[in-house]
Amino acid sequence: MAPPQTRLLLVRHGQTLWNADGRWQGHGDPGLTEEGLAQAIRLARTLGEDEHRNWERIISSDLSRAQQTAAAIADHLGLKIELDRRLRELDVGTWSGLTRDEILRRDPDRLAEFELGEPSIRPGDGESRLEIRLRARDFVCDLAKRCAGNRVIVVTHLGVIRALVPGAEPSNAGQVEVIAEELAARAVDRTRRVEDGAL
Question: What integer pLDDT is reported at residue 56 of this predicted model?
């Protein structure tokens, strides 16, 4: 008999100042802007109004922007936040805090390889796409076992969401619903966005 399915709602954190400035964040730790906090609150209200969903847990990246987004949701839904470092954004090393133009001037060849999607390239001597995929998959496999049958909100970053659901491009405070399985996560819902308080 198959174990009960674990449903995940992958949520990207709200807008940060670095998002607004076009800066690469990686493991850098900027907090949310006022707009980012408003996005998180709108998402929390939307999730609270969805009577067909009964979210049982919320797990967040330990970076501030994700924790602030998770706090708005957790407060609204009456959940306690659990932190997991495996949900951190792709580590972009020395590129953290830089704009694309600044990176292009400093490291044009590596940027070109990274933008072509080469999975083994480490941006700014940070972490490769292959490494973040393995880290994200480890999280999902672990979660599928320890939270079997639960409905879990996962507040994370674009890199982790892309690693788990190729082709997903959620905006700030956007979300993607997936089913956690032993070896992977597969998309079961289209990417949804919160804009002006609506999905």
Answer: 93
Local structure of residue 11 (DSSP, 8 states): E
Distance between CA atoms of residues 32 and 38, nearest Å: 9
pLDDT tens digits, 141-175? 889 888 888 999 999 999 999 998 877 777 877 77
Quickly name the fold that domain 6-21+32-91+128-187 has: Rossmann fold (3.40.50)
Nearest partner of 52 among 111, 1, 9, judged by Cα: 9
Strands 57-60 and 175-180: unpaired
Round to whole Å and give the CA distance between 39 and 11: 11
Is 0.90 surpassed by the pTM of this model? Answer: no
How far, in Å, CA of 38 to CA of 27, rounded? 23
Tens digit of each residue's pLDDT (9 = 90 or more) over 66-97: 999 999 999 999 999 999 999 999 999 999 99
Cβ-contact 154, 59 below 8 angstroms: yes
Residues of the chain with pLDDT > 70, as a percent, come to 87
Q: Which of 27, 89, 127, 177 is catalytic?
A: 89
13 is catalytic: yes
Active site residue 27: no
The Cα-based distances of 179 to 8, 83, 182 in angstroms read 6, 20, 10
Active-site option among 13, 27, 157, 177: 13
